[in-house]
Amino acid sequence: MLKQPVITFADTKLIREKEGHSLTAYPDPATKADPWTISYGITGAWVKKGVTITQEESDAKFMELVQKFCKDLNSCLKVELSKNQYLAVLSLMWNIGKGNLAKSTLLKKVNAKDFVGAQAEFGKWNKAAGAVMKGLTTRRAVEAALFGQGTADATTLADAVKNLKEFANKA
């Protein structure tokens, strides 16, 4: 069995910052309708117009879902990843879903240990409802920069953002 990183609340900073946070359900920014979202990008049948939750409920539901996503991601991976690589792919999967990740060229390249090729694939996931979204373009660049940190220890989101310009110049 592959050993993947253990993810804590602190590790999810990239997801939380890029998803934003709301204790009240809101419609999808791209469709202005479904799926309704709450907390840090949580969707589901229970998330509907008018639903509100507390901060404690938000954090608990978020971490419960993070653990599910980690299990889903682990089931897709055939190679061990550094924590930075894992967090970058987890952030992408949080946004695009397991089904889309599972059939992606990015995952195929990760599993083939083509990490340079995989890093270049992040930028292709910048659309919602068929339209290029500036926020997704920025998020994918940050994820790619974090992924590119590979095995570097103690890389933070700030470190990834500093390297964003360098990555953009290579792309």
Pick out its properties:
8 helices, two-stranded antiparallel ribbon, mainly alpha, Lysozyme, single chain, 171 residues
Describe this structure in words.
This protein has 171 residues and is mainly alpha-helical. It has one domain (10-170): Lysozyme, CATH 1.10.530. The protein is built from eight helices and four strands. The chain has a two-stranded antiparallel sheet with strand order 1-2. It is globular and about 45 Å long.
Would you kindly provide a brief summary of this structure?
The chain has 171 residues and is mainly alpha-helical. The protein is 53% helix and 7% strand. Strand 3 and strand 4 (131-132) form a beta hairpin.
List the helices and strands and how they pair.
Blueprint: H1 13-19, E1 22-26, E2 37-39, H2 55-76, H3 83-96, H4 98-102, H5 105-111, H6 115-121, E3 127-128, E4 131-132, H7 134-148, H8 157-170
Antiparallel strand pairs: 1-2, 3-4
Strand content: 5-15%
Radius of gyration (Å): 16 Å
Helix content: 40-55%
Oligomer category = single chain
Q: Give me the number of helical elements.
A: 8
What count of structural domains? 1
Biggest β-sheet: strands ordered side by side in the sheet: 1-2
CATH architecture call: Orthogonal Bundle
Shape designation: globular
Sheet with the most strands, sense and barrel status: 2 strands, antiparallel
CATH topology: Lysozyme
> In sequence order, what are the helices and strands, one letter per element?
HEEHHHHHEEHH
What average pLDDT do the residues reach? 89
What's the count of strands?
A: 4
Give me the secondary-structure category: mainly alpha
The level-1 CATH class? Mainly Alpha
Distance between the termini: 34 Å
